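Why run this: before we spend reagent on co-expression, it is cheaper to look at a predicted model of the complex and decide which construct boundaries make sense. The entries below are exactly what would go into the expression plan.
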Amino acid sequence: MRVLIRAVGLIGPGLPDWSRSMPVLRGEAAYLPSPVQLASVEALPPAERRRTGPPVRLALSTGLQALAGSGLSASEVVTVFTSSGGDGQVIHAICEALAADQRDVSPTRFHNSVHNAPAGYWGIATRSHAASTSLCAFDWSFAAGLLEACAQASTATQPVLLISYDVPNPPPLQQVRPLHDMLGIALVLGEPGKGKGLARLEVELNPRAQNPTRMGNAELETLRSGNPTGRALPLLEALAAGTAREIALDYLDATLVLRTLAG
Amino acid sequence: MQPLVLSRYTLTTSLGAGLSDHVRALAGNRSGLAPCGFETVRLDTWTGQVPDAQLVELEPALSLFDCRNNRLALLASRQDGFEAAVADARSRYGAHRIGLFMGTSTSGILQTELAYRHRDAASGALPANFHYAGTHNSYSLAAYMRAHLALAGPAFTVSTACSSSAKVFASAARMVAAGVCDAAVVGGADSLCLTTLYGFGSLELLSHEPCRPFDAQRSGISIGEGAGFALLERAHAALSDDAIVLIGAGESSDAYHMSTPHPEGAGARAAMARALASADIAAADIDYLNLHGTATRSNDAAEERAVYELFGASTPCSSTKGATGHLLGAGGIVEALVCALALREGFMPGSPNTRQLDPAMRVRYLLESAAHAPARAMSNSFGFGGSNCSLIFARAGVCAF
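The model came back. Tokens follow.
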């Protein structure tokens, strides 16, 4: 599949947004991991804003950043959300309540427990009726989301906004499912030859496992391997460098081979 | 869209295991709902429980996936020669050319609920035998079925609440059209758990009686459990007339509220209109519509409005949730297969437990099953977060390939 990458969104530790992170990804500036500062999503009505936790705020902020970079409006893109898990804080609170005698589940927590909660809030924030899906493939969720987004971009008539996000769980879930820090990465994908873009991307599913492309910087490699959304960092490194590269992205027992070419 | 044939399909719900149980129950207007006796649940509600779900055993090599949800999926996949049909497809296409796309809402969360009752008193840690990735994680269902069916193609779980296993058809169609795979296994499973029972209870959406979709006295949902699967391949001219073909899919977002549908059914209407456009047919070409029809006041009113505006008052429609209960993430596949059975067997299911149609409803709602043979049927699935999906199936005999 061939697609055009029109814009990028990025929020992670020491990676405040895409434009300020490019020098780090090019190796021109030192990588200084610092805690992620998540702004509340102003586009949401105040009552809805108060109900959102870190995963929703991370997903929406990263997606809105990429959308702004593309110059498209929310109603012009279909969305693909992908995450290796749900909202751990919400699941933890529900399971704690269910283990207690009263089994008093909060209705807001219950509707926030669905895997597509960020997609629901995205719709409320942007008022877009465009199609949206929400995927999970455990550690390979970014690769799964990229496959779905590329399949949509190459078969539909609309550009696609892919939003990948992963947020650590509270204990005791964090012990059984450790995730390193929080990270959101978004890509706006379109058809090659339609509009301006950062790079063209060729995606091929190779049924054989290969060694995945890693990050040269040790701390960025920790983020790549420790947070499922981090699997996208070698692609972002290639986009920041602006050069043609081949990247191996591990996907289940197979490999997604990604080739970037100048836009 | 490029049409795909459902070469083999099967489903298991409280109505029974496999297709023939469902044809008998649906044509006979039978319900599988019973007073809730699940686990330690103390709620005044009815459920569509699958009695044998806990009895099946996973293969020892895949024991990390052991949970009620994957057991239910295994029980379903064993029916109707489904596994043999997948094995045959594997030999024709190669395991890596068959995609697998599963829908679930809560996956194996029941394991986590149980583990939280047995946390270490000092550290708060979960018990050592709890396996998060194999059970609770949304991908568990797809990982288990991919291993069980020995497939090696692209795979993921779609988890968009109650539209999950409808949307897997749309994903599979795109993957085949894009050349990522040549065929796909789609399906879904959702099993009873405390999160959904107490969660819908907290929203005051659980009925105290068997749910009554589109009834004047409807008072909320009955939760059910179920699983279903379909093997999808490219449709071709040599298909027999009664082969069932996916000819359209439409997806939309309500952009309105997390747990309440758009009151005018705007998102529902957009999904149905997009499905018709993708099938390149008109509303009048649909002979039967399987509604989402959850039996909440707001869902049924909004959906009725959307259906009436698009189809008018003549297209026969019904919700089968009075028969199966609301299957949440498994509702999409099960109701898609209800449409497939209606098309294949030549009947239109009625609406068990609905006694008196709400006089505000203008659509042609079927209380009793009817012996009219549809040629094209639409299935609606709408979920929390305003996620909507409509699918259109047809008998191959009315398709031009």
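The two ends of chain B are 11 Å apart (CA to CA). Chain B touches chain A through 68 residues (CB under 8 Å). Bring this page to Monday's planning discussion.
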